[in-house]
């Protein structure tokens, strides 16, 4: 009969996983979401308690709040990861641990002892580690700290009584490979209170063997030197699968060397998972003879919140207790409970199947990559390598150096690393279930890593995902090859357009290159020149992004130091680089000329307004002398004009923007045609020459329609015109000008200010205007 409390624990866990996992909210929870939106700000604890459902909804909102704010999309319907049934068992273990901890002491002791014994026995048998003990820990580095403390207690007999004082007589030395996890040795020294001088990093092979394996001969030499110097070689950290490349040290030779000098051998790495398989390589099999090794079954089997395990061999329980590897507190033994439940749920066959599936994925990808050109792989063992490294190589490119990284200059190697970094990021984004990532290696440079033992169980990677990775590679590699080959052409074409265009040497940009349009304005100070340059390049980038092309144009990325640049992305082999650069130069020049025309037009309008005001003031004075003071009075002037009308000789003025002069409107009134006006529809634009459906920057005969240089250039920005300008408050109709295609024919008309005081004359003047000109004279 199942305990009712245990059944309730399982029920509550299922309900919590349903709310947190599938994101289904109750209908009335929408009103509470507005209250949850302020949970990022800490506040006081509420006086009244809340039910479990409300608290779970709050946790759900906190988990997905940042995603909703950043992406503007609801990602709550997506699970956090592929937990699976075995993951639910691991999560159930944490809930049961809290329940079991309240049992009476004797029952708790028996239960925890059974859990710890079962889990230790199962792990030792699965991973071929006979007569071993287990230490379960949250931090995967904590096991190494404990076994190192155990080694200190074993080698320094008076350490338990004298403490660190006994270490001054013979300083302990800890050896680690140069391929170990970054910061592992420093963390070990900090936890043990040892100086960093106690840490010795052993270089890897440089001539013979893998360049990721520890140099055994050099290690032997270092040990002898430390012994002669009065130091005590204490512990050696070896790798069964380096963190980046997945290579395994020569563990058998290292074990012989450690036995010779009395050194504790500790092994860690992802390749230790293959010990569960029926067939294991001899290199990895050497780990079973080590003094201790750290396993991470949570990552290998896709178990969330499962502790790491350090298996070790030592005959003295008192020293193990002093080192912290064992505990007399039953509650601490409950750390193994989630793993105990998960291992029982999976069974031995299920555990082996997951590890075998991950290893098969690596072999499948390695086989597929052999048929992809320009992709070079790097594995430790062609027949059995859980980790696959691959990178884009120039070996098939024109003028390449056979794919050898050593044959490349510093700039070319950095560009190649940039392209590989971009390729890895694209693959991770396009096929997220694959779990590929980017690693930086000292010799190989930037590579893409596929390590399914660490990701497949968590992400649910299948063979179809590997095939999709290869398919995306087949799409990306030709583009990368074409871009790499055309980078030099782009540089040369940009130099040909100097000084209007400047090529920016940015090796960290994954694309064709970077260019900047240089303003040709003379006499401007540095700050004004930079502002003008930024304005032109921003407008140029907008124009380029609006073009009908597949090429990606971007502004300055965060990692570059140059400013006001336009970055051109990846291109295909049918791109006409000359046409592309010509378009950039032409558009930049059009934008600069449009801006300069607007500035000149503004200055001419300002001067014209001043001149018009002076002439209008003069016309008002002449009108006053001609008509007399009486006609200017409102009532008297109307009576006099009724009995004795006066024909005014004052005419209007037209302002020529191109010439910057005020002219009489007599010609306009006599011909009833605005002189010099050219219809915008009569002016052909460059964009009108392009045929519908054509793509820009394609070479003739390259799989797309050929296009002329002018057809690829979009229309210049014609929005720089000004609709109207008010010259003076004394002028009744505002002076206006139409948006010009050329400045020579843009005109605005000005009325004498004297017409403002006499409504009859205003009407008479309007009646004298020819039809079609009233809109220009009254302002639009």
From TrEMBL:
<dbReference type="GO" id="GO:0016831">
    <property type="term" value="F:carboxy-lyase activity"/>
</dbReference>
<dbReference type="InterPro" id="IPR015421">
    <property type="entry name" value="PyrdxlP-dep_Trfase_major"/>
</dbReference>
<comment type="similarity">
    <text>Belongs to the group II decarboxylase family.</text>
</comment>
<dbReference type="InterPro" id="IPR055102">
    <property type="entry name" value="PDXDC1-like_3rd"/>
</dbReference>
<keyword id="KW-0456">Lyase</keyword>
<dbReference type="Pfam" id="PF00282">
    <property type="entry name" value="Pyridoxal_deC"/>
</dbReference>
<dbReference type="Pfam" id="PF22937">
    <property type="entry name" value="PDXDC1-like_cen2"/>
</dbReference>
<dbReference type="Pfam" id="PF22930">
    <property type="entry name" value="PDXDC1-like_cen"/>
</dbReference>
<feature type="compositionally biased region" description="Polar residues">
    <location>
        <begin position="721"/>
        <end position="741"/>
    </location>
</feature>
<feature type="domain" description="PDXDC1-like third">
    <location>
        <begin position="494"/>
        <end position="596"/>
    </location>
</feature>
<keyword id="KW-0210">Decarboxylase</keyword>
<dbReference type="InterPro" id="IPR050477">
    <property type="entry name" value="GrpII_AminoAcid_Decarb"/>
</dbReference>
<dbReference type="InterPro" id="IPR015424">
    <property type="entry name" value="PyrdxlP-dep_Trfase"/>
</dbReference>
<feature type="region of interest" description="Disordered">
    <location>
        <begin position="23"/>
        <end position="44"/>
    </location>
</feature>
<dbReference type="InterPro" id="IPR055103">
    <property type="entry name" value="PDXDC1-like_2nd"/>
</dbReference>
<keyword id="KW-0663">Pyridoxal phosphate</keyword>
<feature type="compositionally biased region" description="Basic and acidic residues">
    <location>
        <begin position="767"/>
        <end position="780"/>
    </location>
</feature>
<feature type="region of interest" description="Disordered">
    <location>
        <begin position="691"/>
        <end position="780"/>
    </location>
</feature>
<feature type="domain" description="PDXDC1/PDXD2 second">
    <location>
        <begin position="412"/>
        <end position="483"/>
    </location>
</feature>
<protein>
    <recommendedName>
        <fullName>Pyridoxal-dependent decarboxylase domain-containing protein 1</fullName>
    </recommendedName>
</protein>
<dbReference type="InterPro" id="IPR002129">
    <property type="entry name" value="PyrdxlP-dep_de-COase"/>
</dbReference>
<dbReference type="GO" id="GO:0019752">
    <property type="term" value="P:carboxylic acid metabolic process"/>
</dbReference>
<dbReference type="GO" id="GO:0030170">
    <property type="term" value="F:pyridoxal phosphate binding"/>
</dbReference>
């Amino acid at each position: 009969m199942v305990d009712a409390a245990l059944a309730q624990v399982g029920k509550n866990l299922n309900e919590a996983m349903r709310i947190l996992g599938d994101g289904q909210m109750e209908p009335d929870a929408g009103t509470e979401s507005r209250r949850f939106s302020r949970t990022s700000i800490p506040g006081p604890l509420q006086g009244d308690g809340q039910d479990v459902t409300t608290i779970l909804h709050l946790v759900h909102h906190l988990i997905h709040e940042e995603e909703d704010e950043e992406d503007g999309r609801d990602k709550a319907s997506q699970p956090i990861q592929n937990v699976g049934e075995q993951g639910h068992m691991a999560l159930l273990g944490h809930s049961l641990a809290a329940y079991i901890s309240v049992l009476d002491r004797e029952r708790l002791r028996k239960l925890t002892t059974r859990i710890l014994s079962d889990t230790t026995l199962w792990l030792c048998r699965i991973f071929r580690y006979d007569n071993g003990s287990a230490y379960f820990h949250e931090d995967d580095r904590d096991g190494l700290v404990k076994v190192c403390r155990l080694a200190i207690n074993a080698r320094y007999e008076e350490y338990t009584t004298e403490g660190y004082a006994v270490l001054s007589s013979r300083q302990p030395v800890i050896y680690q490979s140069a391929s170990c996890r970054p910061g592992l040795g420093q963390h070990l020294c900090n936890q043990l209170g040892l100086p960093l001088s106690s840490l010795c990093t052993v270089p890897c092979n440089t001539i013979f063997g893998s360049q990721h394996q520890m140099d055994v001969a050099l290690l032997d030499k270092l040990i002898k030197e430390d012994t002669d110097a009065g130091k005590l070689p204490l512990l050696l950290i070896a790798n069964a699968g380096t963190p980046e490349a997945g290579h395994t040290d020569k563990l058998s030779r290292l074990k012989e060397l450690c036995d010779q000098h009395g050194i504790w051998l500790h092994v860690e790495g992802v390749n230790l998972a293959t010990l569960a398989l029926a067939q294991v390589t001899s290199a990895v099999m050497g780990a079973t003879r080590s003094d201790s090794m750290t396993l991470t079954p949570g990552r290998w089997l896709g178990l969330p919140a499962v502790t790491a395990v350090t298996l070790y061999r030592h005959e003295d329980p008192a020293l193990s207790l002093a080192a912290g590897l064992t505990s007399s507190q039953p509650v601490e033994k409950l750390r193994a409970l989630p793993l105990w439940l998960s291992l029982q749920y999976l069974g031995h066959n299920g555990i082996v199947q997951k590890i075998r599936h991950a290893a098969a994925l690596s072999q499948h990808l390695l086989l597929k990559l052999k048929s992809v050109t320009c992709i070079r792989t790097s594995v430790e063992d062609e027949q059995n390598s859980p980790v696959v490294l691959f990178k884009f190589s120039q070996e098939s490119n024109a003028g390449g150096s056979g794919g050898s990284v050593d044959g490349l200059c510093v700039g070319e190697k950095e560009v190649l690393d940039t392209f590989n970094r971009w390729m890895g990021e694209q693959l991770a984004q396009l096929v997220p279930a694959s779990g590929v990532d980017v690693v930086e290696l000292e010799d190989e440079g930037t590579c893409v890593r596929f390590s399914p033992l660490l990701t497949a169980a968590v992400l649910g990677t299948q063979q179809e995902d590997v095939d999709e990775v290869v398919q995306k590679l087949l799409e990306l590699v030709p583009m990368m090859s074409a871009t790499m080959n055309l980078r030099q052409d782009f540089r040369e074409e940009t130099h040909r357009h100097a000084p209007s265009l400047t090529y920016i040497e940015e090796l960290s940009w994954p694309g064709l290159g970077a260019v900047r349009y240089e303003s040709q304005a003379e006499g401007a100070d540095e700050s004004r020149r930079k502002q003008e340059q930024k304005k032109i390049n921003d407008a140029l980038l907008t124009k380029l992004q609006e073009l009908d092309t597949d090429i990606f144009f971007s502004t300055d990325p965060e990692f570059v130091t140059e400013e006001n640049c336009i970055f051109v992305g990846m291109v295909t082999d049918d791109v006409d680089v000359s046409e592309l650069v010509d378009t950039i130069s032409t558009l930049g020049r059009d934008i600069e000329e449009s801006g300069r025309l607007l500035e000149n037009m503004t200055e001419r309008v300002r001067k014209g307004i001043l001149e018009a005001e002076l002439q209008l003031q003069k016309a008002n004075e002449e009108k006053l002398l001609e008509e007399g003071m009486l006609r200017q009075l409102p009532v008297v002037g109307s009576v006099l004009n009724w009995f004795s009308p006066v024909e005014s000789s004052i005419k209007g003025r037209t302002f020529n923007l191109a010439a910057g002069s005020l002219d009489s409107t007599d010609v306009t009134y006599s011909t009833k045609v605005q002189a010099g006006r050219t219809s915008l529809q009569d002016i052909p634009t460059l964009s009108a020459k392009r045929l519908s459906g054509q793509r820009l920057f394609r070479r003739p005969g390259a799989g797309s329609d050929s296009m002329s240089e002018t057809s690829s250039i979009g229309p210049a920005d014609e929005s720089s015109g000004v609709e109207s300008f008010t010259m003076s408050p004394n002028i009744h109709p505002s002076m206006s000008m139409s948006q010009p295609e050329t400045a020579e024919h843009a005109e605005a008309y000005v009325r004498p200010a004297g017409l403002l005081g006499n409504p009859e004359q205003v009407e008479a003047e309007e009646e004298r205007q020819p039809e079609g000109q009233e809109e220009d004279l009254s302002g639009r």
